[in-house]
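Take a minute with the sequence and fold tokens given here and flag any structure token that looks odd. Thanks in advance.
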Amino acid sequence: MALLVGAVLISVCGYLVVGAARAQAVPAGALRYAAGLGGLALLAHLVVRFGAPYADPLLLPTAVLLNGLGLVLIFRLDLETPADRAAPAQLVWSTVGVALFIAVVAVLRDHRVLQRCAYGCAGLALALMVAPILFPAVNGARIWIRAAGFSLQPGEFAKVLITVFFAAYLAANREALAHPGKVVWRLRLPAKGVPPAHGGTPTRTELRAGEELRAWGRVLAPVVAIWLVSVGVLVLERDLGTSLLFFGVFVVLLYVATGRAGWIAVGVLMAVAGAAAVGTLEPHVHGRVQDWLHPFAGIASGRGPGQLAQSLFAFAAGGTFGTGLGQGHSSLIGFARKSDFILATLGEELGLAGLSALFLLYALPAVCGFRAALGLREAFGSLLAVGLAVLPALQVFVIAGGVMGLIPLTGMAMPFLAQGGSSVVTNWIIVALLVRISDRARGPRPDTPARPARAAPDALGALR
């Protein structure tokens, strides 16, 4: 509760500072903002206090602070575009997100229920990923569903569903994935056949002719299929960020399930190969790669700086401690200032110190997720906790790397910070699942079966 009070106070102070810097007065909606954010935080706290009392105490305050800072930054950017105000709608979406957070924590009493509907989650995720293809592209990417003035980014919800499927699949097949076999370029492939259930020497039936090839096919086929799906998303929707996110989460979970670093090497090579091929052949993605390679080409040709160049200028202008909230030049960034490039505004107005604090704040949910994974004694929950922790961390890397010129720019939203209802709702669902998993990991477990005597080697086991 003390952490929540601090998170709300920091956000409200930011709101007041923006108003003082821009109009030398307290913003007219300051009281409503404080009451709304404080009320949502209190409701969420009560649900966690009585519904998941053993949950990690850092998860909810971190989410409230990130959401509050996002509302402050969007309000600050609304002052640059008075005809296009996004903060009121973002507060409504935040309310919806907290409501779903409360519903998940209250209704989902055991995260293991999700393992039984893993393939249904995968089917629904694929349907959500394919749906935007039927709608017109927005800014060159087909990641939105727009109808009757309402917009939705289904890929945001699909990433949670596909993570549930990844965790369930790898929990069920990690024995075959981790069992030692032939070594091909430092990657240890599965052995001949599946390890015998009795733990003894394989029989002739278990080593019948062709079983080795079929075992490799059973294990490697899903890896190749996930790679093809990620490349397909990249080709059809022109969405580099979602493609990298899906495949990155799968490779991380594959490593955690098996403890074999060779999977990471293979995953990185496959991702680079797919991105390089599509980046060369697909015009929209190729254009973003060229902007990344030559961010100041517009200045050299006399067309003026593009968004990426303006973003780099904003980070440079911020220096160590920034220009101060409300005292930057965010209007120069362009139309994506409230979404893709909102981090540039924070970098300019809070400087390197503010950016460092923000990235450390984003690291807290990841730490909580890893800690919950280590506290569980069943594979599905551990893998799901790691996947849900890695999702926002990878997303932050992809977005921050894009606006800072480290990697080609993507069209993803900064978790909790950027404008976008689908994004903020999805991130509240992720926090709710982590709260439920951490409650199981930190609380008493009288119904947890004992660890089997012969377990597959994995990274989590090694850490334990």
Q: What stands out?
A: Strands lie at 145-147, 150-152, 183-184, 187-188. The chain has a mean pLDDT of 82. The longest strand covers residues 145-147. Residues 342-375 form the longest helix (34 residues).
